Automatic annotation (TrEMBL):
KW Chaperone (keyword) present: yes
Protein name: Chaperone protein HtpG
Keywords: ATP-binding, Chaperone, Coiled coil, Cytoplasm, Nucleotide-binding, Stress response
Organism: Selenihalanaerobacter shriftii
Domain of life (superkingdom): Bacteria
A cellular component term, taken from the record's GO annotations: cytoplasm
InterPro entries recorded: HATPase_C_sf (IPR036890), HATPase_dom (IPR003594), HSP90_C (IPR037196), Hsp90_fam (IPR001404), Hsp90_N (IPR020575), Ribosomal_Su5_D2-typ_SF (IPR020568)
Family: Belongs to the heat shock protein 90 family.
Upper lineage: Bacteria, Bacillati, Bacillota, Clostridia, Halanaerobiales
Pfam (any one): HATPase_c_3
Coiled coil: 499-530
Primary location class: cytoplasm
The keyword Protease is annotated on this UniProt entry: no
Assembly: Homodimer.
Length: 635
C-alpha cells in the first residue's frame, strides 16, 4: 500500500463506459443521485450486518445516515454516508474497474450500439448497472473519500473522467464514504438542465427516486421564520416507510390506506390490499391495491397506469403497464425485487424472464383474491364489479382456454330471477329447472326494456330464468365461451326455443296458412329472410328474431356504433297465431289474396317489430302516417 498520491489509468472498458456517460446520454441524468444514494444505503446495510458479529465496528458512530450537502458558490454536491467505506485496495478494485462478470458482453454491445441513439445507450446501461459512473453524467470532477472501519487512514480517489484517476491516502476522521461532485455547468443555475444547486430540486429528486430508502437522507434547508429571518434547519428528505418490506401481520389496515392514498394519489381508500413476499427462485415483495373507483379514462386506449418497480426500496420505474394483463389494468401497486437493476429500461423489461414469472404469479394471486372476495364478501365484490366488471369481461373476450376458465366464475349478470341483484353462472346453473339444458339470455337496454320484450313472454310464462345482457360486450363474451359446465348459452332472441308442448299445433297451423306467410314474406323480401308463426309469443302480435348462428341484431348495433360494418343480422319475422291481428290478416288474404292492403300491413308489422328491437322504421314518416290513418279508421 502506498500513501503517496499516484495517477492510475482506468481499464479500457471503464473509460469507454465513462465516455458513454459523459457524451452519449442526454436523458434521465437525474438518476445519478438515486444511484449514489443506493450505494450509500448498501454500504450502511453492509456495516450494519457486520456489526451483528463485531460490535466494535460501529464505535460512536451508530446512527446510520446519508447526508446531502450543497456548496452553491463552488457548485459542489456532496453525498456522504457512514457505511462500510472502502480500503485502498477496495477502491482500486471497485471504482477503477468494472468488476461485473458481464463487462465483456457489455462492451461488445456497447460497440454495436455506440453509434445509435441516446435512449438505446441508456437501455444498455440498464442491463449492466454502472451506478457510480453515472455521476459523470452531471459532474466534470468526482472526488471520493472513504474509510473502512478499523482503518487508520482514509483514501481519496479523484477523476475528471479523462482516462485517469488519482488515488492517495488521506486523513478521514469518520468511517464511511463522501462523494463530491463538481457539477457541470449545465446542471447549475447558469445551465439549461435541472439546477442541482437548488435544494428544492434535490429534495424533489430524493422524494421521487429514493423516498423509501431505509436510512434517513438528511440535508440542511433554509427557511424564513415569522420575523423574516432565514434560519437553518436539518430536514429528513425521505419517508423511509417501505411498508411492503414489513411483515403484513404487523400492519394495520389504516397504514395501508394511508400509504395507498399518499403514494398513488387517490382520495378514496383502496377496496382491497394484496401484500405478499416471495422467497423462491425469484425474490420479491409486492404490494397491490384494488382501487374503489375506476379512473374516468380507464377504458380509453391510452390509459397507462401500471405498477411501480423498486429495487431494494429504490424507485426504479413508474407506470409499468406490461406487467399485468390488460384486463387487470386497474390494479395499482408496486413490486420490489433485489433482482431488478436500478436502470432497468422498459425495453429490457419486456424480455425479463424473472419479471415474466412475477407477472404470472401476480395475475394468479389477484384472481384468487377476487374469487375469495366474491365468495366471502359479496357486497364488496359488487362494488368491485360495478367499477371493473367490464374489464373482467374484456379479459374473457380476449383470452381463451385455461385463462378464460379462471375468469368465467368471476362474471356477474343481472337476471330475471335476481330481482335487481346479480348472479354468477354457477348460481344460475344451480337454480336451473329440471330438464333445462341451456342457459337463456337476452340482450337489451335495461331491465324494463327486456322484461317487456315480446320474446320473453313464453319464458316468463314457464318461469325460466333469463340472464340479462345490458353491456355491449356481453354477447361477445358469451360467443367466446359458448358454454358453461356443458350448458350452451341460448339467446331468447334467436332461432327456435323448442319449449312449448303446443309447438306441434303451431306447426300444423303453419301448414294451413303457408300461402299467407309466403305472401307476407314476399312483401318483405328485401327485409326478412323468413316469416313464420311464433311459438314464443303469448300476447304480443309480432317480433323479430335472428337465426341460430351468425350476427345477432344487438351485435349488429354494437358493430355499427364502432363503425365496423359486418353486414346485417338475419331477421325472421314471427307472428303470433293467437293474436287478433293474425285473424285479420287471414281474412284479408282469403278475400283479396296478396292485395295492396296486405302489403301495407306486412310493412306495418315489420316496422312495429323493428321498433321493439330498437331500430327506427326505414321510412318513419310513412310509418307514422299509416298509424294515424289506422287510428282515424278505428275511432
Ligand atoms: N458509498 C459507498 N460505500 C462503500 N462502497 C461503495 C460505495 N459506493 C460504491 N461502492 C463500491 O463500489 C462498487 C461499485 O459501485 P457501482 O455503483 O459502480 O456498482 P454497484 O453498486 O456494485 O452496482 P449497481 O449500481 O449496478 O447496483 C460497489 O459494489 C461497492 O462495493
Amino acid at each position: 500500500m502506498t500513501a503517496k498520491k499516484v495517477e492510475k489509468k482506468f481499464q479500457t472498458e471503464t473509460q469507454k463506459m465513462l465516455d458513454l456517460m459523459i457524451n452519449s446520454i442526454y436523458t434521465n441524468q437525474e438518476i445519478f443521485l438515486r444511484e449514489l444514494i443506493a450505494n450509500a444505503s448498501d454500504a450502511i446495510g453492509k456495516v450494519k450486518f457486520q456489526s451483528l458479529t463485531d460490535s466494535d465496528i460501529l464505535g460512536e458512530d451508530s446512527d446510520f445516515e446519508i447526508w446531502l450537502d450543497l456548496d452553491e458558490v463552488n457548485n459542489v454536491l456532496t453525498i456522504e454516508d457512514n457505511g462500510v467505506g472502502m480500503t485502498y485496495d477496495e477502491v482500486v478494485e471497485n471504482i477503477g474497474t468494472i468488476a461485473q462478470s458481464g463487462s465483456q458482453e457489455f462492451l461488445q454491445k456497447l460497440q454495436e450500439k455506440q453509434a445509435q441513439a441516446k435512449d438505446n445507450a441508456l437501455d444498455l446501461i440498464g442491463q449492466f448497472g454502472v451506478g457510480f459512473y453515472s455521476s459523470f453524467m452531471v459532474a466534470d470532477k468526482v472526488t471520493l473519500i472513504t474509510r473502512a472501519p478499523k482503518q487508520d487512514t482514509g483514501v481519496k480517489w479523484e477523476s475528471i473522467g479523462d482516462g485517469t484517476y488519482t488515488i492517495e491516502e488521506v486523513d478521514k476522521p469518520k468511517r464511511g464514504t463522501t462523494i463530491k461532485l463538481k457539477l457541470r455547468e449545465e446542471f447549475t443555475s447558469d445551465g439549461d438542465e435541472i439546477d442541482l444547486t437548488n435544494r428544492q430540486n434535490i429534495k424533489q429528486l430524493v422524494k421521487k427516486h429514493s423516498n423509501y430508502v431505509e436510512y434517513p437522507i438528511k440535508m440542511k434547508v433554509y427557511e424564513e421564520n415569522n420575523e423574516g429571518e432565514v434560519i437553518e434547519k436539518i430536514e429528513t428528505l425521505n419517508d423511509m416507510k417501505p411498508l411492503w418490506i414489513k411483515n403484513k401481520e404487523n400492519i394495520e389496515i389504516e397504514k395501508y390506506n394511508e400509504f395507498y392514498k399518499e403514494v398513488f394519489n387517490d382520495w378514496t381508500e383502496p377496496l382491497e390490499v394484496i401484500h405478499s413476499k416471495v422467497e423462491g427462485l425469484v425474490k420479491y415483495s409486492t404490494l397491490l391495491f384494488i382501487p374503489q373507483q375506476a379512473p374516468s379514462n380507464i377504458y380509453s386506449e391510452d390509459f397507462d397506469l401500471g405498477l411501480r418497480l423498486y429495487s431494494k426500496n429504490n424507485f426504479v420505474m413508474d407506470n409499468c403497464s406490461k406487467i399485468l394483463p390488460d384486463y387487470l389494468r386497474f390494479i395499482r401497486g408496486l413490486i420490489d425485487s433485489p433482482d431488478f437493476t436500478l436502470n432497468l429500461s422498459r425495453q429490457v423489461l419486456q424480455d425479463d424472464k424473472q419479471l415474466k414469472i412475477i407477472s404470472k404469479t401476480l395475475e394468479k394471486k389477484i384472481l384468487k383474491q377476487l374469487k375469495s372476495m366474491l365468495a366471502d364478501n359479496r357486497e364488496q365484490y359488487k362494488e368491485f364489479w360495478s367499477e371493473f366488471g367490464q374489464l373482467i369481461k374484456s379479459g374473457v373476450d380476449m383470452t381463451h382456454g385455461k385463462k378464460q376458465d379462471k375468469l368465467v366464475d368471476l362474471l356477474l349478470f343481472p337476471s330475471s330471477y335476481a330481482d335487481g341483484e346479480m348472479t354468477t353462472l354457477a348460481e344460475y346453473v344451480e337454480r336451473m329447472k329440471e330438464g333445462q339444458d341451456v342457459i337463456y339470455y337476452i340482450t337489451g337496454e335495461d331491465e324494463i326494456t327486456v322484461e317487456n320484450m315480446p320474446q320473453m313472454e313464453l319464458l316468463q310464462e314457464k318461469d325460466l330464468e333469463v340472464l340479462y345482457f345490458f353491456d355491449e360486450i356481453d354477447e361477445f363474451v358469451i360467443n367466446k365461451l359458448r358454454e358453461y359446465n356443458d350448458m350452451e348459452f341460448k339467446s331468447v332472441l334467436r332461432g327456435d326455443l323448442d319449449l312449448d308442448e303446443a309447438d306441434e299445433d303451431v306447426e300444423a297451423e303453419e301448414d294451413e296458412v303457408e300461402e299467407l306467410l309466403e305472401a307476407v314474406e314476399e312483401n318483405l323480401a328485401d327485409k326478412v329472410s323468413e316469416v313464420r308463426l311464433s311459438k314464443r309469443l303469448k300476447s304480443s302480435a309480432v317480433c323479430l328474431v335472428s337465426g341460430d348462428v351468425g350476427l345477432s341484431m344487438s351485435m349488429e348495433k354494437v358493430l355499427e356504433k364502432m363503425n365496423q360494418n359486418m353486414g346485417q343480422a338475419q331477421r325472421i319475422l314471427e307472428i303470433n297465431p293467437q293474436h287478433e291481428v293474425f285473424s285479420k290478416l287471414k281474412d284479408i288474404y282469403l278475400t283479396e289474396g296478396n292485395s295492396d292492403q296486405l302489403a301495407e300491413y306486412s310493412e306495418l308489422l315489420y316496422s312495429l317489430a323493428s321498433l321493439v328491437e330498437g331500430f327506427t322504421p326505414d321510412d318513419p314518416v310513412t310509418f307514422s302516417n299509416k298509424i294515424t290513418d289506422l287510428m282515424v279508421e278505428a275511432i
